[in-house]
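Q: Give me a backbone?
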Amino acid sequence: MEKKIGNNVSSGAEKVERVEGYTAETVNGTAKAPAVKKTTKKTTSTKKTASPKKSGTTKGSGKRTALSKAEKKEKAAAEKRLEKAKKKEAQKEEKKADKIALKQKKIEKKAEIKQKKLDKKAMVAEKKAERKQKKLDKRAAIKEKRIERKAERAARKELLRNETKAERQKRIEREKKERIALRRQKAAAREKARENKMASRRAAHERRASDRKHRREQKTARKENRRGFGGWLAAVISLGVATLVLGTVVTAGAFRLNDMAGIGETGARTTLYELVSVSEDMDNNLSKLRISSGVDEQRKLLTNILVDSALIESALERLPVDAATSTDISSFVNETNNFASSMLARLSEGKTLTSAQKERIMNLYTVNQKVCGELNELATHMTQSDVMDFITGNEGTMSESFGSIGGGIHEQAEEIVDAPFAKEGNIGENRLSDLPEITEAEAESKAREYFSAYHVGEVTFTGETTASDVTCYNFILKDENGMEIFAEITKNGGKLAFFDCYENCTEKNFALDTCDKLAKEFLSGLGIENVEAVWLSDAGMVANITYVAKEGGARIYPEVIRVRVCESKGRVVGIDARGYLLNNEKHSGKAGLSEAEAKELLSGELNVTACNLAVIPVGGRRVLCYEFACNAGEEQYLVYLDADTGAEVEIFRVKNSATGSYLE
């Protein structure tokens, strides 16, 4: 039988709608009962209709109450179902979003892995290309080195084919000395390694002995707490044993004394050989540095000189020289070390070495060459008795030789001579830039012409260099005796800007006045006239003379030339004319004050001994001044007053030394 459902019964959805509508009306303030369809019965009289029975009214109210509860219950159930449906839908959306995020993460990770593979592949390819390029560069370097060695062998063959008997003898002697020095260096290195090993063994032995002594002291301290007859007896026995041991040690020491003396002699000889080897290495580096023009090569040579100076100081500390000699040699070594450090710092700043610094390198080279020669002579001729006297502190040949070396270094250290404004460099315009450029061949021809009196044979071009606003061709010239002359010929005009050579000047055969005349003759051959010597000094049998141009009665200090003359042979061995070539120009201008008026402006404590008009460099410009040479008690001064205003422009203090004067 089918279940009949009344037309007035709605579905659950319709009930939910009615409940929601009821709720909305309640919220709006109109509490209405849900619309219920009423069923009416036909009545026969108007009275029944107007006045229904009381019992009928109560029954209808109860039905409405029951219906309201059912609707509330249905409404709550519908809300639960709705919340559940929403929650389920939200979970679905969340899962869907997680799936999408996970999928996106996988895609990103996959792309990252792919990118890493591509980067790795690119890096591998790059490294492979680098390795390939390195191999090519290495092969090219090897090939180039082979070509250089081949060229060197060919040049050596050509040199050997054309060398004279005297040159061959000198070469053989030089190569022999080099081999001997190399063997000495290797022997010194082996001896040093052996000494280090022995020192380590001695240190370990001393540590073990110290530990044993400490344990014995602890054991003795414990026994003292229970000292008795047994302890006294043990002490007597120990004393007897110690006496026997002492006698044995004294006897054995007598046998080994000669061995210890031999070890001391070997150590002194080894240290001296090491000192000779390192000084020869420094001599080689300084010799190269004085003619080097490349920054990289100069930096390498200065670094080597730093290492050499440290090794010399270390070797000197192991020799029993007296305090005065050690101080003299150490001062030279420290001076060389400090100079090399400062020049390295200068090169690191992108600067170049000045002419004054190159001259200082030459002075260090001269001193070290003398030291190296005396050390080599000492190492070659010292006897066993000389070494034993030296290591035992007695006077002897070695002590005298080291004293002579120290004294020679001290004399060379006083070579501080200079003229006023001699290091100012270019002032104003570069006068060389107006001259036409010449070729390398023309420069070589000029070099041969300038040194025609030096009997030059071989001339070698070594490159170009630019320093102090001067670009020069560099040449090494050799005279008939094999002496090398390093010369710089300006690219503009073909002027001799600088040259230097080493002469063994050991005797004073020419006075300063004669050296002045010889220097002026040399300058005249270069076309340089009208110069005046403003500074003369002796340094190691070499006359150092500074000239300035003289025009209209005034000394032109920016146009400076420095000349070195060997007092043994009476020959010019060095010149620096770059200041003169750069600043050579006509002087114009007159003094606003007279000499007497300017003199009145000086301090009353000064006694004037000489006065000259002088053009001096001040802040990159030329200033006409009065130059007053003055005394104040025993002190000497040079005072420069502006020739127009009388203002003090510059004051120098003149200091005297054993080899000349210098300025402070």
Notes: The first strand starts at residue 456 and ends at 467. Residues 10-31+70-154 form one domain. Residues 1-13, 23-56, 248-263, 410-417 have pLDDT under 50 and may be disordered.
